[in-house]
Amino acid sequence: MSRIAKIPVTIAKGVTVAITEADVTVKGPVGEVKMHILPLVKVTEENGHLHFEQLDESRDANMNVGTMRALVNDMVKGCSAGFEKRLTLVGVGFRAQAQGDKLNLQLGFSHPIVHHMPAGIKVETPSQTEIVIKGADKQKVGQTAAEIRAYRAPEPYKGKGVRYANEHVVIKETKKK
């Protein structure tokens, strides 16, 4: 059995877990996340802990049980505390403005970019050059941040573009005559 899967997942206060034969649903103060149970994995709940077992001794079952435990642990963390990604806009005239479930971006193109947020994801703009993406589903938060960054990734000569708040962009030296 996977070493990760041997450690039970502790269910946080205010979080409820519903297990069916095919799905695991986690509800909490931040939101609700539902996931299909991977094949060859059995999930059980005992005394506020979730336990994971593999149904046979194959290599695939061993991999799936470790993956399932890690994903369910992220679901419990996300529904209790939530996940957050911060983006920074670097460049003259680059601006962001949140309007409900839409994010309006001006990134130096001839037209503004409107990015629609998926269900369960909230976006805030503390300033015109900062974007904060929050949600209960870790995968959706990261995917949304990556999609926004892809509109204008940081370029290597001046570093202009959309970058993660903790991202370090290596600036290349310009050509000398």
From TrEMBL:
PROSITE patterns registered for this protein in UniProt: RIBOSOMAL_L6_1 (PS00525)
Domain Large ribosomal subunit protein uL6 alpha-beta: 13-80, 90-164
Tagged with keyword RNA-binding: yes
A Gene Ontology BP annotation from the UniProt entry: cytoplasmic translation
Highest taxon of source: Bacteria
GO molecular function, one term: structural constituent of ribosome
Family matches, as Pfam families: Ribosomal_L6 (PF00347)
Signal peptide: none
Gene Ontology annotations for the cellular component aspect, listed alphabetically: cytosolic large ribosomal subunit
Record's keyword terms, sorted: Ribonucleoprotein, Ribosomal protein, RNA-binding, rRNA-binding
Family label: Belongs to the universal ribosomal protein uL6 family.
HAMAP family membership: Ribosomal_uL6_B
Assembly and interaction partners: Part of the 50S ribosomal subunit.
Function of the molecule: This protein binds to the 23S rRNA, and is important in its secondary structure. It is located near the subunit interface in the base of the L7/L12 stalk, and near the tRNA binding site of the peptidyltransferase center.
Name of the protein in its database record: Large ribosomal subunit protein uL6
Organism: Sutterella wadsworthensis HGA0223
Gene transcribed to yield this protein: rplF
